[in-house]
Amino acid sequence: MDGTGWRPVKRTRAFEDVLAQIERRIAEDGLTAGDRLPAERHLAEQLGVSRSSVREAMRVLETLGVVSSQVGRGPDAGAVLTSRPDSPLTDLLRLHLGLASLEMREVIDARHMIEQWAAAHAATAGADTSGLAAALAGMDAATSAEEFVEHDIAFHRAIADASGNRLIAAMMRSLRDSMRRYSVEAVQRLGDTSVLRADHVRILEAIGRGDRDEAVRAVSDHLAHAYPSLFR
Amino acid sequence: MDGTGWRPVKRTRAFEDVLAQIERRIAEDGLTAGDRLPAERHLAEQLGVSRSSVREAMRVLETLGVVSSQVGRGPDAGAVLTSRPDSPLTDLLRLHLGLASLEMREVIDARHMIEQWAAAHAATAGADTSGLAAALAGMDAATSAEEFVEHDIAFHRAIADASGNRLIAAMMRSLRDSMRRYSVEAVQRLGDTSVLRADHVRILEAIGRGDRDEAVRAVSDHLAHAYPSLFR
DNA sequence: GACCACTGTATGGTCAGACCATATCTAACA
DNA sequence: TGTTAGATATGGTCTGACCATACAGTGGTC
């Protein structure tokens, strides 16, 4: 004991204080996407820290998809609150895949779970399937694996968006984006995409007529065809 | 036209270069959790940028749960690669809930999806249920809603961990952490927790005897009891 | 030899101040 | 009225300094 009072292990860093203050203000003032934060120099003065610390906090918020910074002057300049949960999720997954702290198997399992959920909800909600049809046409017209995958992504993305849950849709987009390269390789390895095409048609039709169970089965079969090595 | 050649809209910022370089090195050198990054000053010199820019990149990586920084000297000091997808996910969800860019309904739907998946896989895998039983005992002994929720979180977390998918388990933990406050209110509003207890016992037993379908149903019923206002 | 206190040093954390690039605003001017 | 030139506020970057921390070494003491 030192008799001077006690200090817990962790000192909070200056930028963490800034983060907490900003988060508090967001909650208290009810700030939402589109609202502006004070300029870095003003925040630094108000909070009694250096501009560097404010900037580090800004980087964190930007990384989390909560603010976006523009230079210059005027109503659109400075740090503006945004709402982009996708790109942080994508970065997160990509980096952790790179670090080998996640295996592709786990990512594909997660995708399986989300795709089934989204297809079921899209079918139940009687979603508009014109976007799906357009993506399908894009796949038919594709002349390279990369191009095919782009439209494939658009197809599955449309299902997720149609599910009506923005969080789950964001997860879906991030998963798909972070495994884009792997998908291209999978398509190249497969060579023939006619099986995938048939799967897509089956999914589209099941959703179109609101057949939930068939939509779920179709998605499941589709993933098994696309990544045969990962399914027993 | 200015005749001097053309410049695309977006200039990359210095810290973004640093990020790209570090990510490249992680991929090329096959760095994984536990490996150290060069010191900030060295990185700054190697990459030809200021230390501030390196620090901003570090904040980003730290936010994404990829590095962790320690001061001091020795083998454990400096920036060390880590693997914590949980805390970034939690921060992400908490901030976006605060920003009202996500609704609680969406978060609970996502939780529903993940809980069902995890319960099904835990049941199929014949998971050890001793952790679940311990959490159940903790809930029985709890004397406040906060305490109850802590053990409740532990219970559901154990199911997610038993599913064998680290990504999905991380999603589960993050979802649950970000809605901790809401859970406490829900328990207080409910008053009597005997219904929840019965649900937990039912889930535990279904997983214990490997009854996948019953586990899924039990989880679904449980969430309906816990958040009655969000289920039709 | 074993232990302990002191000093050195590499690390991240923080700050102050300067300058640049950019985008808008303002006022003078034609 | 339209245009242009300057003023200004913003983020982006750099430099250099100093602090706090925690280990590495060094030397002394027992």
TrEMBL record, chains A, B:
> Which InterPro entries does this entry report, sorted A to Z?
GntR_C (IPR011711), TF_FadR/GntR_C (IPR008920), Tscrpt_reg_HTH_GntR (IPR000524), WH-like_DNA-bd_sf (IPR036388), WH_DNA-bd_sf (IPR036390)
Q: Does the keyword Transcription apply?
A: yes
Keywords on this record?
A: DNA-binding, Transcription, Transcription regulation
Q: Which Pfam families match?
A: FCD, GntR
Q: Which SUPFAM superfamilies match?
A: GntR ligand-binding domain-like, Winged helix' DNA-binding domain
Gene3D superfamilies on file:
GntR ligand-binding domain-like, Winged helix-like DNA-binding domain superfamily/Winged helix DNA-binding domain
| Presence of the UniProt keyword Nuclease in the record | no
Question: HTH gntR-type domain spans which residues?
Answer: 12-84
The protein depicted here goes by the name: FCD domain-containing protein
The source organism is Nonomuraea antimicrobica
